[in-house]
Amino acid sequence: MDVAITSPTDGSTVPFGELTIPGTSTVTPNTDCQVSEDWNDIHPYHVVTPKSPGDYSTWTFTYTSVYHLMTSGDTNDLTVKISCNGGVDSSDTGATTYDTIKVIGQ
Question: What is the domain partition of the chain in residue ranges?
Fold first, then answer.
């Protein structure tokens, strides 16, 4: 199981305010999994927007004022994870995989 934030890159400077991050994963409708994200290890995680229902092979998430805006001058840890409850592929049972990047608000 793999998950990755594809943009921005780790260590990038991003404008403060709203930020949309796209990514990829190996989660397809054939697995009982979902992709979710958090900011600076604040929980709960929020489910990202999948390519289509259950297909997280490509996904997006937008940080807005509803959840959290990027703040100027601060380091923002952006983490995505795959969580699985077991599905068609029995190797997915209980699997969790993460990807984290750090961006600086400007």
Answer: 3-105
